[in-house]
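Hey,
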Amino acid sequence: MMMSDNNGMQPSKLCEEFARILDATPAVINGVCTATRSRTNLRPTVLGRRAESFMFIPQAFSFENVDRDGRALCLGETVILQEEINPFISILRENRILVTAVHNHWLFDDPRLMYIHFETIANPLEFARRVREALNVLTDKTIGDSRRDNRSENSNAERLCDRFQRILGGSHTFENGACMVMRARNDIRPRILGERARSFLLIPQMFAFESLSSDGRALCSGESVLLEEEFNPLASELRERNIIITAFHNHWLFDDPKLMYIHFVKIDNPIQFARDVRDSFEVIE
């Protein structure tokens, strides 16, 4: 689950109700009401390793810029199975929510994970109710079997997480053997549907490791918002370090500037991965 980066701010009553409808956890992240949960009935592997952190099975929703009529810019995304995509889209469209992207984020995943992103300007609670209706079509059966990983627990993982965060910056959490670092790319200040926005869903940088084995290697992953012209220089740097680029695409529509997103993975020592990612990103910073 996403960590809170709220600078001491507590979720408002509206934010708490928004999250309650979505059966999610409310937080103020980058100054914006954000509700998050993990789709824990999905138990995927990526590159043969257990991949059950928020990076792989996220559900996230936000709203911001509430106007005098009670309407706000509302965003959402969820991991989704292939067979669920079209029923989910049908309900979103019936409820006048714009579908903005449907795609993979990862390669070598089992089961095949897809991701759907959506947006609208609406009353936040009405948006939450409409999305809840769509979420009801998703299966609650357990899919996948993380026992295939056969990983060894490593007592050093939490200490490694602290070092991982110090290299990459931002804030971090360690939960159920998974370390996640999160920071917002606040140098990008987009508009979505004409609204100035700073939701973490728009400008994320997330880096994680999980499934740490006794040889000191883990499933390491990353995601970052990029501008179009930044992709190829960054891609060259990542590939020089043998990091696998798994996707590059949009998540949203009607955004200015055009926001693009890169996803990447590697089985590696987490500290080496963190250093390689830090050094790679210097080309765009």
